[in-house]
Here is the input.
Amino acid sequence: MDLAYHNQTLSGTIANKGIAFGRICFLKREKAEQIKKTVDNTNDEIDRFEKARLHAISQLGALYEASLEKLGEQNAVVFQIHQMMLDDPEYISSIHNLIISEKSNAEYAVTTVAHRFEKQFLEMDNDYMRGRAGDVIDVSRRINEILMMHAGKLEHRGLRFSIDGPIILATDDLVPSETVQLDQHTVTGIITSKGSDRSHTAIFARTMGIPTIVCIGSQLKEEYEGLYAIVDANAGNVIICPDDEIICKYREIKRTDDVQSSHLEDYRGKATLTRSGAQIRLYANSGSLADLDLIKASDAEGIGLFRSEYIYMQAQDYPTEEEQFKIYRDVLKGMDNKKVIIRTLDIGADKTAEYFMLKPEENPAMGVRAIRLCLNNRALFKTQLRALYRASLYGNLSVMIPMVTSVEEVVECKSIIEEAKAELSSQGLGYKQGVEFGVMIETPAAALISDELAQHVDFFSIGTNDLTQFTLACDRQNAELGKYLNPYHHGVIRLIEMTVRNGHAAGIWVGICGELASDEKFLGKLIQIGVDEMSVVPSSILSLRAKIATLG
Ligand code: PEP
Ligand code: MG
Here is the structure.
């Protein structure tokens, strides 16, 4: 044990839970030539870049094929996204222009433009786009390595580790094409100084089941190379040079975790039943098509909340009907006829996209957002509804409206849906009959008039995140108000009880899709209240199913 580092603990953001043991090994990358050189013939340099770019595109095609089996289509698709990045006219022309204007070598132009794009992605105000910063670095690094290979300076691209045996891979950030090459038996854990828990790297690590902590920052130092460490990705800590007592403690935790998760496997493919045999539908929350493999691996019985606004937040401009249709269709097809509840656009407040040019408001959480914004922009709303109903032919779709406060809003939404369906029929475009239509109960007003709302819908889904915020007059974004934002407050619980009672009295089902549904401490209460469906983070499906079996 190196006494200088004895039990030193670093902390970061959990990207995939679990415990891992091994020696820290920093990823060694062949440094691509980034030094600026002046070239005589810029046309030759552009030509070198173009050859490398085309070579990279064909490599990515092969990588896509190879990843299909290992990671599934939804994850492999990142390599198609990389191919598209390499075909992006802005990216290409920026590199050409830099070569010409600065008479620079291709490697320097590629690196400079990559960092410029990376900075732009990192400055964007949504997590998904920030997660793409790593992708642009990845594709650019690939081109630079090909340029070096063509110049005979690099033999092959691939990961090499200087340490044998189980390692904890340490690096500033991993890019998707590196993550896919990892062997779970060698790499037991991943720790990165940068990165985001929404990046493809994090998604891949989850899919491959490697405990991962990102965003450790400058605490992660190269001097830890070769030291034994424990990754406690349940708590977000890395313990360097742990003493024997700590190692024993974590071996025991890991043993218990392994026993528990193998025991959880007994619940895979089973219905979710309470002790007395009442059935509850256990669905997963989803933000994008990219979550699909995770959701399928989680054994969710359906998707209880597909936050469609993420599609808008990931786009540079309003997504067209066709673009949306393809995404909804692929989600529905991917879920093999299991129920998929897609919530219509819930933009506004903390969820924004620049091109919406939302007017600044004093209280955006209570402003022109979600269904209010859609009813003010019927064309925007209708585009989404048309895409949704067209996609309904490909699976088991339900449509749900966010932030409802009145019966009038629901009636108006239904009439726009009828208009959208009539338009589709007149254009010879099909849709499924009997698509379930529901509303989210996430304002106190909606809960209080849930008896009236129930007359107009097929189901309710209770959004406890907003219901708590609005019932307790407590901004959910304000970290200082944490202790006031109490979902167990009797005011919130009474509104949940009232909603379930009113829904059942009208003969409709009632689900819950806020974070409270994943709260094991509150499960007993939810079962007692009689919710029919719970939509939760995919990773907690099996443990909740096991817990529910002991309750009620
Ligand atoms: C909620 O408010 O509980 C909910 C599920 O919606 P969101 O968290 O997306 O606002
Ligand atoms: Mg909400």
About this structure: The pocket of phosphoenolpyruvate (ligand 1) is lined by residues 305, 307, 346, 442, 463-466, 513-514 (CB under 6 Å). Residues 32 and 144 are 6 Å apart (CA to CA). The longest strand covers residues 19-26.
